[in-house]
Amino acid sequence: MGGNQTQIKFILLGITDSPRAQTPLFVLFLLTYIVSLVGNVGIISLVRVSPSLHTPMYFLLTHFAFIDICYSTVISPRMLADLLSEDKTISFTACMMQFFTFAFFAAIECHLLAMMAYDRHVAICQPLLYVTIISSRVCWQLVASSYLFAFLSAIIYTWSVFGGSFCGPNHIDHFFCDVSLVLKLVCSDTHSSEMVIFAFVTINVVGTSMIILLSYISIIRTVLRMCSAQSRARAFHTCAFHLMAVSLFFGPAFFMYLQPSSRHGSLDKVASIFYAVVTPMLNPFIYTLRNKEVKGALLKCRSRFFNHWQHRRVLSLRT
Could you give the CA distance from residue 292 to residue 223 in angstroms, rounded to a whole number? Predict the structure, then answer.
């Protein structure tokens, strides 16, 4: 990428070109982004202050919430600004950095979902060995390796997309710099780049989804062999939240990145909005609404805060 290459500017056409729809969409997505930030920060804070949640599953969940914050922040602020701005240009460097960070956090999210599935597999299928297999050290090693592999993947992924020559149209019919639409603007041959991209998508998306699938096949077989109906219901209930998060993330991702480039169309924006903007907002609700452990921790925190407030109030009245 030479000096002339970095002087290129792209134009993001955004979600819609209708002026009447832009303000309502801005309000809707701003609220979505705020709820996403508050919900995920809330999960991280609750796990940190609640000793009952200091377990491997919630350790992974805090990283998952952190990645959701970063993931949505890469996309949402720029999208919100473009909805109210007439100037939708983005520099070559900014486009490349947005793509790099998006690919980095998306890859980590794939690996975290696979780790959470493996955690549930060990907890249900090998409960007596859970503490040994999923130790604190193992959790840190798994998370650190996922960050490292995602970083290397994002570098190669970004070079494959932006390493070609851009000399034609500069309009991107999307609200962020996504792989298929940027590649359409490359003048040089993209066959080798597409092969590299396909390989890394296969590793990060298909590979992790296969780990999740195999983990849940093993979980289902173990649960069906349980004698107690109550034990089966508890096991399925434990896994239901994670399966919902997996479906919300991998469903649109498979639709977007594992279909032929000729079939990309208007539904791509809807799928991208869903997994890049809506899913990070929904995940905190999925993991808290019917989770008894999280509800119990919330009640304890509320009681602790109320007692502390009452104590401060009594002291102030005495003085």
Answer: 20
